[in-house]
């Protein structure tokens, strides 16, 4: 799902990428992997590699080498992940290290309402809390309001926000350019897309 969200955002690596509610860092990490054109699963093993009666010896290494040759490890990326919870930032940083992307992503403890930037032409991809418990609804709606207050005045940035709250636009304060229905497992969610107008 995280990789799909990055691809749906049509992000180009020369533009900033921000996840304001990054949790364990999944979306920024997927963005960095895609930005470097690193093949999915290149650093892990697969059960099919043990099927020696079906695959020629050395085929896995050959395929990995071919994929690795297509990666671009030199491209410079501007990727940031933020979360209000420092514990989640610690986890995100550890996951980033495990993925070998320490120099590609900056993680920082920061609330949505406290973020600002002078950069242009960026992309925001967020999977905020859905507020499924009744007690969370008010806090989540306040988060959506804060997003609207911060993001609406950023016309060159595109924002892609995934939530199961189909009233998101009401609290964000603006209708989406486009809505796309996605399923997170069995849960119906919508990707609310606000397309920016890039400044040349």
UniProtKB/TrEMBL annotation:
Keyword Glycoprotein: no
Entry-linked Pfam families: UPF0020
Keyword Metal-binding: no
Keywords tagged on the record: Methyltransferase, Transferase
Top-rank taxon: Bacteria
Entry-linked InterPro entries: DNA_methylase_N6_adenine_CS (IPR002052), RlmKL-like_Mtase (IPR000241), RlmKL-like_Mtase_CS (IPR053943), SAM-dependent_MTases_sf (IPR029063)
Domain Ribosomal RNA large subunit methyltransferase K/L-like methyltransferase span(s) in chain numbering: 1-189
Name used for this protein in its record: Ribosomal RNA large subunit methyltransferase K/L-like methyltransferase domain-containing protein
Organism: Limosilactobacillus oris F0423
């Amino acid at each position: 799902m995280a990789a799909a969200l990055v691809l749906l955002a049509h992000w180009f690596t020369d533009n900033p990428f921000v996840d304001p509610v990054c949790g364990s860092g999944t979306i920024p990490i997927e963005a960095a992997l895609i930005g470097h054109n690193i093949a999915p699963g290149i650093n892990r093993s697969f059960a099919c590699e043990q099927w020696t009666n079906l695959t020629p010896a050395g085929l896995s290494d050959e395929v990995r080498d071919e994929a690795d040759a297509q990666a671009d490890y030199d491209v410079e990326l501007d990727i940031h992940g933020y979360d209000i919870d420092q514990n989640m930032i610690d986890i995100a940083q550890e996951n980033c290290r495990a993925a070998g992307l320490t120099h590609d992503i900056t993680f920082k403890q920061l609330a949505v309402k406290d973020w600002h930037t002078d950069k242009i032409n960026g992309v925001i991809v967020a999977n905020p809390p859905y507020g499924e418990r009744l007690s969370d609804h008010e806090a989540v709606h306040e988060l959506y309001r804060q997003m609207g207050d911060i993001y609406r005045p950023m016309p060159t940035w595109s924002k892609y926000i995934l939530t199961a709250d189909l009233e998101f636009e009401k609290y964000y304060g603006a209708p989406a350019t486009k809505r796309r229905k996605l399923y997170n497992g069995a849960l119906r969610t919508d990707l609310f897309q606000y397309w920016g107008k890039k400044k040349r």
